[in-house]
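Reopening this ticket.

The earlier resolution said the output was attached, but the attachment link was broken on my side. Pasting everything inline this time so it's all in one place.
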Amino acid sequence: MLVIAFNLLMMGIEVDATSALKPGEPTPAFFLVCNIAIVVIFIFELTIKFLAYGPRGVLLGPEKWWNLFDIIIVITSIIETILDMVTQASFSNGLDSSHLRVMRVVRLARALRGIRVMKLIRSIGALRSIVLAIVSTLWSLVWTLVLLMILFYVFGVILAQLVSDGCSTIQADVVNCDTLNHMRYWSTVSESMLTLFLSISGGVSWIEALDPLRTISSLAAFAFIAYVFVSIFAILNVVTGVFCHRAIESAQADKEIAIMKQMEWKEVSYEL
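Inline output:
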């Protein structure tokens, strides 16, 4: 766990340090040494696992997917470390565009190593419960997005049509639609959908989007207020309740699985 946390910490420090370097300036050797040390520890950990469980236990055991993930991470880490060493050595002979491309690939491969933090999350109960709760609500999130897109489209069409009709019939000397924010918020259906999304997500104040509607059409202003009322006080509150319910169910299921495993372990220990 400490190695994974140290690896993530060093990745962030290295990104900050390399971003401050001038073009063509080599990365400090300290980061290369730390990277080699981390890769050696990863290789040692994987070797111990193979010696303890054997190839069959590692590749076909209950933790086979995590072990396969570790193998992929170790292989990519070895490759990117070798490429990093070659690239660092090439600085003495001058750096061309091909070397720069190699450095980009190396840094991208190194970033993939950060995915290994999922194994750290898996071993911590509190983080595991949070991740399981998020995963369990993914399908609900998908259907929520579908529902919101339908809502955005329906009200977007209505408001864009009302604004277009209002601007076509209103006298230019009374209200000049071209100078109003309706061109910014309600000119097309897509712009109207974006405005509707921003007005309930904090991207823009809904009163700011309402002002041009009030000058053009009272019906459009009423439709927008109805949309805000329905989306905030009805749909989003219901969706929040559904998400909370799903999260609680996943947490309870995870506890039940843990209890079942503990009971099975006790039964095995009693038999022995």
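Reporter confirms the inline version is readable. The radius of gyration is 29 Å. The mean pLDDT is 75.
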